[in-house]
Design goal:
InterPro entries: P-loop_NTPase. This is Gp26 protein. The protein is about 35% helix and about 20% strand. The chain is α/β, with parallel strands linked by helices. The strands form three sheets. A nine-stranded mixed sheet has the order 1-9-2-8-7-3-6-5-4, sandwiched between helices. Strands 10-15-13-12-11-14 form a six-stranded mixed sheet, sandwiched between helices. A two-stranded antiparallel ribbon has the order 16-17. The radius of gyration is 27 Å and the shape is elongated. It has helices spanning about 15-25, 30-40, 65-75, 90-105, 140-145, 165-185, 200-210, 235-240, 250-260, 265-275, 290-295, 350-360, 375-380, 395-410, 420-425, 450-460; strands at about 5, 55-60, 85-90, 120, 125-130, 135-140, 150-155, 190-195, 220-225, 295, 310-315, 320-330, 335-345, 365, 415, 430-435, 435-440. Helix 1 (about 15-25) crosses helix 2 (about 30-40), helix 1 (about 15-25) packs across helix 3 (about 65-75) and helix 14 (about 395-410) crosses helix 16 (about 450-460). It contains 16 helices and 17 strands. The relative contact order is 0.10. The protein folds into three domains: about 5-225, P-loop containing nucleotide triphosphate hydrolases (Rossmann fold), CATH 3.40.50; about 230-280, no CATH class; about 290-460, Nucleotidyltransferase, domain 5 (2-Layer Sandwich), CATH 3.30.420.240. Strand 12 and strand 13 form a beta hairpin. It binds adenosine-5'-diphosphate (ADP) and magnesium ion (MG). Adenosine-5'-diphosphate (ADP) binds near residues 28, 30, 62 and 66.
């Protein structure tokens, strides 16, 4: 553990009872889950109920966090009659997806005997128990504004909350805790569980940072699992050593597969499996709201028809990858940019570029300086085979990014859905020089070429070279 609350052996704990429920649910507690259950379940010798009113738990993904919450919630439902337990997640779908799995598990377990028939309504999922207690999943957005009153609430994946959104939920819950304690004799608990987020995770970051600084209330216990600051997230052995579910829920071979899912997104990987906060780029080239608002459906080659196409090509720093994107001119001159491929290195790029430009009779936009200079040079020296280049001066290149962002903002450019392109947009930062900016390759946290190639493709589509007319003979 990177930090957290140690077990106070002077207090009794409810952890063993949680462990029993977990066994009955078919997910016997892993050692780290048991440790958390033991500490969070410590009983105040003065009152006989929970010592802690708040539990803050930060772990990497694929750890068994949500599964631990299920075991604790099930146990919590049995402290007495008519208890209200909420499981809150980012969206209603996140909450419902997780909860449906839980319903299946509990209904197939011996604990089905203490449940009543679950509600499966669209907006009204819940598991009532024979004693009148009930566990309910909700979306954060649904309850924000009303607040939640109950005996236990969990904010799962709280990294998604802004300080404000998180606080509206707590504003409803906190004041009722004392009342519920009096009425039930059981201390209500708030659980805030999450993998580390980004600089925008203001609600979770503030709470976790307070714990790390030792400023948490004495009624808060906390647990922080993940890669220590000096370890390398690309070192899979280091991940295996520090991820508390490694070797228990999955093995090193599967870890390599997980890593592959984060291709081009090293910061996302470090966050998910190292539980490293993604301090990320503070100056994203295209902010997330604009990016999401300008999604378009992909265009298939068959659906192209006679629409003009230009290709854009960009190369990552150190020539690690080459991205090719298409800019497709549609109705009203609106340009759809679409990532076509990301190639390793630059070696195979000329052949693929020639093939695409030839097949679609399309010109090419490429920067003849910078990281793609060498590739551009190779293309230019192909003689008669060389692709038709969009005429672009060095000055033009500086405006390509700005033109793309303005195009997105004013609705003349959109981008076809693509996870690699999303990752590139999320990790591409910009550098300013005077009033102009360009994508900064070294200051970005992932591949910039997918996004840059789209910028070039859009520029190319808007600056199609004149087609040479029929040969004139005098
Ligand atoms: N104690 C356990 N025993 C067996 N399987 C478990 C246990 N805890 C978690 N799992 C399984 O591991 C996977 C990841 O667990 P989950 O709770 O979703 O992790 P997290 O919320 O940390 O991402 C799930 O398929 C879950 O069923
Ligand atoms: Mg989870």
């Amino acid at each position: 553990m990177r930090g957290g609350t140690a077990r106070d052996p002077g207090r009794r704990t409810d952890g063993a009872i949680v462990a029993k429920f977990a066994e009955l649910l078919g997910t016997p507690l892993l050692p780290w889950q048991r440790m958390v259950a033991d500490v969070a379940g410590e009983l105040d010798p003065d009152t006989g109920t929970y010592f802690y009113d708040t539990v803050i738990l930060s772990t990497p993904r694929q750890c068994g966090k949500s599964t631990l919450v299920d075991a604790i919630d099930t146990r919590n439902s049995q402290w007495g009659p008519d208890r209200y337990i909420y499981y809150l997640a980012q969206t209603g779908k996140d909450a419902a997806d997780h909860f449906k799995k839980y319903l299946k598990t509990i209904q197939a377990s011996p604990l089905a005997a203490i449940t009543a028939r679950p509600y499966l309504g669209a907006g009204d999922l819940r598991q009532p128990f024979a004693n009148g207690s009930v566990i309910m999943p909700k979306s954060v957005t649904k309850v924000a504004g009303h607040g939640v009153q109950g005996d236990k609430i969990t904010l799962d994946e709280a990294f998604s909350l802004s300080e404000e959104a998180g606080n509206t939920i707590l504003d409803g819950f906190m004041p009722t805790m004392a009342t519920r304690l009096k009425a039930t004799g059981v201390q209500p608990q708030l659980w805030i569980t999450s993998t580390e987020g980004t600089a925008e995770s203001t609600f979770f970051n503030q709470r976790l940072d307070a714990c790390r600084a030792g400023e948490q209330s004495r009624r808060t216990c906390w647990f922080d699992f993940g890669l220590p600051a000096d370890a390398d997230p690309e070192d899979l052995d280091a991940i295996m050593r520090h991820h508390p579910a490694a070797g228990l829920l999955w093995d090193k071979r599967q870890l390599a597969d997980f890593r592959d899912q984060f291709k081009g997104n090293p910061a996302g990987w470090a966050r998910a499996f190292g539980n490293r906060r993604d301090e990320g780029i503070t100056d994203r080239v295209i902010d997330e709201t604009l990016w999401t608002a300008t999604l378009a459906p992909p265009v298939s080659p068959a659906g192209l028809g006679s629409r003009p196409v230009a290709f854009g090509v960009a190369v990552d720093v150190d020539a690690t990858h080459t991205s090719i994107s298409a800019g497709i001119v549609g109705d009203g001159g609106i340009v759809t940019t679409q990532l076509v491929c990301i190639l390793d290195g630059t070696g195979g790029a000329p052949a693929e570029i020639l093939r695409l430009c030839g097949k679609y009779d399309a010109p090419l936009a490429i920067d003849t300086r910078g990281t793609s200079a060498d590739l551009a040079d190779r293309l230019l020296h192909m003689g008669d085979d060389a692709p038709v280049l969009c005429d672009m001066s060095a000055g033009d290149y500086l405006t390509v990014g700005q033109a793309y962002v303005s195009g997105l903002a004013n609705g003349t450019v959109c981008h076809a859905a693509d996870p690699d392109l999303d990752a590139s947009a999320a990790s591409s930062a910009r550098t300013w020089s005077g009033d102009a900016w360009r994508v900064t390759r070294r200051g970005s946290t992932g591949l910039t070429s997918p996004l840059e190639s789209c910028m070039l493709a859009a520029w190319g589509a808007a600056h199609m070279p004149d087609k040479p007319g029929p040969l004139q003979i005098y």
